Automatic annotation (TrEMBL):
Keyword match Transcription: yes
A GO MF label: DNA binding
Domain Transposase IS204/IS1001/IS1096/IS1165 zinc-finger: 40-85
Keyword Transit peptide: no
Keywords (A to Z) from UniProt: Transcription, Transcription regulation
One record GO biological process: regulation of DNA-templated transcription
Organism in which the protein naturally occurs: Streptococcus hyointestinalis
Protein's name in the database: Transposase IS1193D
Length: 192
C-alpha cells in the first residue's frame, strides 16, 4: 500500500520535480499544464557550474486518463546553462524516456494490456496512442539469451492476436513478470 499525498502522484506521475500549474477541462479532453524544475546540477559536458536559464516550449505528453477522459500533460522543462562552457541542457525526468513523447505509465499500461491479450487496436484506442506505438512496445521487448534465471513457477498460455495469429506468452506466476512472448513471426524475451 502506498499513501498518496499529492495530485501528481494521483494521476500516475512519480517525478516530484513536476509541478502542476493549471488544469483545463475541455469538452472531450483534459489538459494539465506543468513545469519540470529542480536546482541546477553540474554541467553534463564539463562538470562546470550551471545556472537556471529558461523553460523549453511545452511538450505534449499523453498520460493515463483522468475522469475517463483523454489527458495530456503540457510539460515545460527547465533549461540550464553552464557558466563555463556556455552549453544549455534540458532538465531530465523519469516520466518520459529520451526522445520519447509517451509517458512511462502509458508504456506500463500498454504492457499490461498486451499481457491481458487485448488487441493492438483496442489498446491504441483505449490509451489514445497510435497502433504503431503499441506495436513498438511489443517490439521493444528485448531478446536475452540467458535463461538461467527462470522463475520458480512459470505460467504460460497461447492466445490469438491480431486477426487470429497465434502467440505465446510465459510469465512468472508470482510476480507476473513477463518472460517470453512468441508471435508467429518472432520470439522475444521480455524485460520487466
Ligand atoms: Zn559546461
Amino acid at each position: 500500500m502506498e499513501h498518496i499525498k499529492n495530485s501528481t502522484k494521483l494521476i500516475g506521475i512519480k517525478d516530484l520535480n513536476i509541478k502542476i500549474s493549471i488544469v483545463l477541462k475541455h469538452q472531450t479532453r483534459i489538459e494539465i499544464r506543468a513545469e519540470l524544475d529542480y536546482p541546477a546540477p553540474a554541467c553534463p559536458h564539463c562538470q562546470g557550474k550551471m545556472i537556471k536559464y529558461d523553460f523549453q516550449r511545452p511538450s505534449t505528453i499523453p498520460i493515463l486518463d483522468v475522469q475517463g477522459m483523454a489527458t495530456v500533460l503540457k510539460l515545460r522543462k527547465r533549461r540550464f546553462q553552464c557558466k563555463v562552457c556556455r552549453r544549455v541542457s534540458v532538465a531530465k525526468t523519469s516520466l518520459v524516456k529520451k526522445h520519447c513523447q509517451i509517458s512511462q505509465p502509458v508504456w506500463a499500461k500498454i504492457t499490461q494490456l498486451l499481457i491481458e491479450k487485448q488487441t493492438n487496436m483496442d489498446i491504441a484506442k483505449r490509451l489514445h496512442v497510435s497502433v504503431s506505438t503499441v506495436q513498438r512496445q511489443l517490439n521493444a521487448f528485448t531478446l536475452k539469451e540467458n535463461f538461467k534465471t527462470l522463475p520458480e513457477i512459470l505460467s504460460w498460455d497461447e492466445f490469438a492476436r491480431n486477426k487470429g495469429k497465434l502467440a505465446f506468452i510465459a510469465q512468472d506466476f508470482e510476480t507476473l513478470r513477463l518472460f517470453l512472448t512468441v508471435s508467429t513471426l518472432r520470439s522475444t524475451l521480455v524485460e520487466p
